Amino acid sequence: MTILVTGGAGFIGGNFVLDWIASTGESVVNLDKLTYAGNLETLKSLESDDRHTFVQGDICDRALIDSLFSTYKPRAIVHFAAESHVDRSIHGPGEFVRTNVDGTFTLLEAARAYWNGLEGEAKANFRFHHVSTDEVYGSLGPNDPPFTETNTYEPNSPYSASKAASDHLVRAWHHTYGLPVTTSNCSNNYGPYHFPEKLIPLMIANALAGKPLPIYGDGQQIRDWLYVTDHCSAIRTILAKGKVGEVYNVGGWNEKPNIDIVKTIIALLDELKPSPEGSYARLITYVTDRPGHDRRYAIDARKIERDLGWKPAETFETGIRKTVQWYLDNQGWVQNVLSGAYRDWVAKNYGDRAGA
Ligand code: NAD
Ligand code: DAU
User: Fold this and answer.
1) Strands 181-186 and 127-133: what pairing?
2) By Cβ atoms counted within 10 A, which residue in 36, 97, 138, 330 is the most buried?
3) Is the pTM of this model over 0.85?
4) Residue 187 in contact with ligand 2 by CB distance below 6 A
5) In angstroms, what is the span from residue 351 Cα to ligand 1's centroid?
6) Which residues partner with 32 through β-bridges?
7) 12, 37 contact by CB (below 8 A)
8) Positions of E strands within the chain
9) Distance (Å) from CA 226 to ligand 2 centroid
10) Is the beta carbon of 135 within 6 A of some atom in ligand 2?
């Protein structure tokens, strides 16, 4: 038995591949284009593990996906691959439409053709799990209840609009063609192997380098933070027990304003790696806000808890301490990303292996 994972060299996909093999022992075919966000160094521990097959390629490449289905006959596909950074989507939305919309369409069509050719139990048990985001629901006011699965879609950024479009395609491929899909809409993840352009790893990296900690606008925007391995366990649970055609919201019940996140990171770094120049708080710098910046996200995760028995294992306090410690212990990984050396490492170590 094997599953096909897309985007498994990225932050969440990489954590998912490591977690999946460790907790289920089942093999993974990992299709990833290795954009700037894909980093095979994350999967170094699987280098000589034949349960992990890496394929460098694009989810928009229909012929490649068809060949992966026919070669590996996966029992499920878990679709992470996406352009994921809101700020990048503001500067260059085209790649977001291409990968997130066209790429998801291509995967759905390839999966439909493959699934139509299956029979019996293989056909009944096949799953297409689509990994999506809470950002599709738009922005909450201070007193609004958290997002449930029935909230209307009100995406505000090119990124969230492209993810919303992909969610709609997945829904339609189930309703029209019967493709056995599930979708999860998750809140902000944090944890190991997070690319240091997103808030938490950027703040840790900048503080350690003595650089400014850029707070967009007033820093009072609220996100709902979930430790990444809890997201992985939620997806494992949905694959095992989720109902076909259903959407599950996944979150950690951890709403925090950005400035509080940054102050928590500063307090941990002041404790674990004090700077001779004094508290890292001196580096906080308020900068011009992100255009169209959503004010608040919050997830109501009661459905997945009630129907599937999933709950996060980490609190924010335990998760953020682990995360800061991981970055302190893995400065080599961070430095290779910041210098771009991870790309050389990939070519050197995986050059011969990459390709279908
Ligand atoms: P990421 O940017 O770290 O990783 C994305 C991965 O997809 C990279 O390895 C990249 O190389 C790969 N990729 C990009 N375009 C591709 C293409 N055309 N073909 C094949 N591979 C391609 O993203 P992430 O933060 O790990 O997010 C993974 C998924 O989870 C995304 O779908 C995102 O929308 C969703 N999500 C993320 C969060 C979060 O907080 N990061 C929260 C909820 C949902
Ligand atoms: O909500 C889920 C989403 O969370 C995912 O779908 C996205 O893929 C993921 O990137 C993340 O989106 P955000 O825009 O919330 O994450 P980001 O880390 O970019 O920013 C978090 C908050 O911090 C946001 O309010 C913007 C703010 N911020 C971010 C950066 C990079 C700053 O104030 N300064 C910064 O330098």
Assistant:
1) parallel
2) 138
3) yes
4) yes
5) 22
6) 56
7) no
8) 2-6, 27-32, 52-56, 76-79, 127-133, 181-186, 188-190, 213-216, 222-227, 247-250, 255-257, 284-287
9) 13
10) yes
- Among all bound ligands, the one having the nearest atom to the CA of 139 is 2
CA 48/CA 32 separation, integer angstroms = 18
What sign for the dihedral angle of Cα 7, 11, 14, 16?
negative
CATH of segment(s) 2-190+225-256+293-316:
3.40.50.720
CA torsion sign for 147, 93, 175, 131 is negative
Specify the pairing of strand 222-227 against strand 255-257: antiparallel
Residue 287 CB coordination number (10 Å): 12
Take residue 54 and report the two structure tokens written for it: 């890496």
Over residues 213-256, the pLDDT tens digits come to: 999 999 999 999 999 999 999 999 999 999 999 999 999 999 99
Ligand 1 center to residue 56 CA distance, Å? 15
What share of residues in the chain are helix, strand, coil (percent, to 5)?
50, 15, 35
What digits encode the pLDDT tens for the residues 89-106?
999 999 999 999 999 999
Residue 329's identity, in one-letter code, is: D
Query: What tokens appear for 151 in the block?
Result: 């909230």
Which has the closest alpha carbon to 80: 17, 149, 144, 7? 7
- Domain definitions of the chain by residue range: 2-190+225-256+293-316
